[in-house]
Amino acid sequence: MRHSHRLSIRLCIVLLILALGLVLITAAWLTARSAEDHLARSEALLRGLPNVSDKHARLEKIRDELAQTRSALEMLGTPLEFTESFASTASLAPVGGEEIAAYLHLLQAARHSLRAALVGVEAAIAITAPDNGQEHLDMTARALRWVNQHRAELNDSLYELHAANREFAVVQINALPPDRRARIEKYRPLVAQADAWSQQLGPLLDPALDALGFNGPRTFLILFQNNLELRPTGGFIGLYGIAEIDRGAISVPTIRDVYNFPSSPLGRLDYLPAPQALRDYLGPSILTFQDSNWSPDFPTTARVVADYYRREFGRAPDGVIAVNFAMMRRLLAALGPIEVSGINGPLTAENFYDQYQDERANKSAHKQTMAALGAALLEHSRRVEWAHAPALGAALLESLRQKEILLALSQPALQAFVHEMNWDGAIRATPGDYLFIDDANLVTEKISGDLQNRVAADVRIDSDSSVQTTLVITSTNQSDWASQRVYRRIYLPAAAQLDQLNVEIGTEAEVLAVLQAQWKDNHLVGQTLKDESHYTWSHLNLHVLQVTDPEREVDKTVIGIPLPIPENGGRAILRLTYHAMNLVRNAEGQREYRLLVQQQPGATPLRLFLRVALPAGTTLLTSAGLQWNGDVSHWQADVDFRQDQEFSLAFY
Q1: What confidence category does residue 47 fall into, taking pLDDT thresholds of 50, 70 and 90?
Q2: Are 640 and 605 in contact (CB under 8 A)?
Q3: Is 446:235 a contact under the CB 8 Å cutoff?
Q4: CB atoms within 10 A of CB 555
Q5: In whole angstroms, what is the distance from residue 382 CA to residue 137 CA?
Q6: Nearest 5°: phi and psi at 226?
Q7: What's the CA angle centered on 355, arms 352 and 359, to 5 degrees?
Q8: Among candidates 555, 282, 572, 297, which has minimal Cα distance to 424?
Q9: Does the N terminus or the C terminus of the chain have fewer Cβ atoms within 10 A?
Q10: pLDDT for res 305
Q11: Confidence (pLDDT) at 100
Q12: How confident is the model at residue 423 (pLDDT cuts 50, 70, 90)?
């Protein structure tokens, strides 16, 4: 009897716990539905944000909905935690434990995500407030000042984002109902990407604020490079501007003609001497400011330019930024038509280059117009509207990827990040194979866009891991009114040993005629050519120039050669062969070949056909950027280059 009584008490307790669990589960379900409803409304409000005029009021509604979502999720924690504990300990309810655990991780992820999101929304509300006392500032300056004032909250939000990603990572999606999986699969990669960026950018917050003038005004030198008159880092420096940043407020720079650089350096003895090629073909004995980007390595060029600036103004700039006209055209596409003084009608991405080509009529007036355009673009970008902000951000990122913007910053931590992102225009250090073709237009006409380059690279890796490479570079001048005068440098790995290089341009008579007419003082003709020892004229093979003395620069083997290319489809075909050891890495019984090809800033896309032949009898492990061409041990790629690319093969 006593035993039966105890059994009845236990049964009542179990039934009571089950009833309580049922109530809690019901409450959890209702609370979860409420949280989802609030979240859905906040998403709808956010999607419509670009199209409403009163963004401040809309953002406040979004904040309220997110706050309601967060409150509901906080309430949801207690029933879920109780249910998980009950499911994991009660022998009556072993089923469903994995699903409840998944929901708990999901709940924690959502809590952390919302805390981070609310910081961002509060920032947007503060920035768009009509009475925040900063009406004279543009949106970018308001945002930066808010960031500076709320560093602690931002650091907390980065922690919350990282915690959210950690919880999302352990959610067992398969344990959830199908209708929940799609939403998780949508948000989890977004949170992971945001966390990755925050972990990378978080440590840069203080250095970035310093560079943006929150510890005193900062000065940046901006170089406007004309990529239609190609030079080593992206184009001829026709204009320059000086911009100041003070507590996030960016001044619209005064843009000047490069020939009006204060105290023109011509004749001054403390400027660097002009490189030999520049001296031979353009004449100056010193490296003038407009020619100061002669080094294709932008960090090197930036140091030269900053030093020239220091000599003229008494202090070095806090950074050097180079932009080319391809970037300006891209910004026009993002911002829409703008009115510019000196141009009839609105300027658009479609008519931009037509306007620029009008330079031949009046160069002085034209440069004034382009200076006005540069100032107008910077002003429009600075005061960008919400509707254009995403397109502007995407345009700037793409310009950075394609080296239409190059950055050299004095803040070491920021510059390290810029280098890691490949936004610094540096000639990259690499232990493997390397190729970089850099052209300088010396004809002073805006025809570099008419020069098309195609490269065929045939690489053979021998059994001893030595590399034999043949390059064929075909350059076609599509201009119908002017010949090209190009000084070309070909950068190869430091270990490269040149075997042969020759150039064919039309017939021998055509080449001699072009050389005598085009190149200053006929440096490449007759006895002068032979005395310089860099070049020899070969009568054994018609119309051939042959380089025998490559130079070394930035730990690369560099071959420099002038190319006169006639108009109307004139063509230069350059053939080069070299061999090298130590380009194939050997480790743990396998070998790896890597080739980095860099694209010149401002140049037309380079068409590359690459073929790599592995040693006979080897087995491929992995490949990147290359595909098997059906032949034994042969791999190839056929690509149009708009940014740097690395190819690799791992084999044994």
Answers
A1: confident
A2: yes
A3: no
A4: 11
A5: 10
A6: -90, 105
A7: 135
A8: 297
A9: N
A10: 94
A11: 67
A12: very high
Classify residue 214 by its DSSP letter: B
pLDDT band for position 217 (cuts 50, 70, 90): very high
pLDDT of residue 95: 41
The answer to whether residues 43 and 66 touch, using CB atoms and an 8 Å cutoff, is no
User: CB-based contacts of 591: which residues, under 8 Å, 6+ apart?
Assistant: 465, 584, 585, 618, 650, 651, 652
Alpha helix (H) residue ranges in 90-138 = 97-128
Our CA dihedral for 299, 300, 305, 307, rounded to 10 degrees, sits at 110
Is the distance from CB of 476 to CB of 571 less than 8 angstroms? Answer: yes
Q: Is the pLDDT of residue 522 over 50?
A: no
Residue whose pair of structure tokens reads 């922690």 in the numeric block: 159
Q: What is the mean pLDDT of residues 384-402?
A: 84
| CA dihedral sign of residues 14, 20, 23, 26 | negative
**Which positions ≥6 away from 508 have C-beta within 8 Å?**
542, 543
Alpha-carbon gap, residue 628 to 606, rounded angstroms: 22
Alpha helices per DSSP H over 547-630? none
Q: Is the pLDDT of residue 155 over 90?
A: no
Distance CA 134, CA 141 (A): 9
Residue type, 633: S
Q: Which residue type, as a one-letter code, is found at position 148?
A: N
> Which residues face 609 on adjacent strands?
456, 638
CA dihedral 195, 200, 203, 204 (to 10 degrees): -120
- CB proximity list for 219: less than 8 A, separation 6 or greater: 242, 243, 244, 315, 317, 318
551-553 and 535-537 strand pairing: unpaired
List Cβ neighbours of 101 (8 Å cut-off, separation of 6 or more): 84, 172, 175
DSSP letter (8 states) at residue 338: B
Looking at residue 123, its pLDDT comes to: 83
Tell which residue, 456, 536, 552, has the closest CA to residue 496.
552
- Average pLDDT score over the chain: 79
Please say whether the beta carbons of 574 and 564 come within 8 A.
no
Query: Which amino acid belongs to residue 417?
Result: F
Give the Cα separation of 551 and 490 in Å (integer): 10
Would you say how long the chain is, in residues? 652
| End-to-end C-alpha distance for the chain, whole angstroms | 80
Please give the pLDDT value at position 237.
Answer: 94
- Residue 505 · residue 467 · CB < 8 Å: no
Evaluate if residue 23 carries a pLDDT over 80. no
CA angle 232, 237, 240 (to 5 degrees): 140
Indicate whether 546 pLDDT > 70. Answer: no
Query: And the tokens for 333?
Result: 């596409």
- Tokens matching residue 584: 């194939």
Structure tokens at 222: 């901006």
| Amino acid identity for residue 464 in this structure | D
CA distance 312 to 422: 30
- Residues 244, 250, 251: CA angle, nearest 5 degrees: 65
Q: How large is the average pLDDT for residues 284-292?
A: 87
Question: Helices 97-128 and 151-169 meet at what angle, rounded to 10?
Answer: 160
For residue 266, count other CB atoms closer than 10 A to its CB: 12
Q: Across the strands, what pairs with 85?
A: none
Of residues 93 and 124, more confidently modeled: 124
* DSSP secondary structure code for residue 633 in this structure: T
Residue 481: partners with Cβ closer than 8 Å, 6 or more residues away: 567
Percent over 90 (pLDDT), the chain: 30
User: Model pTM?
Assistant: 0.82
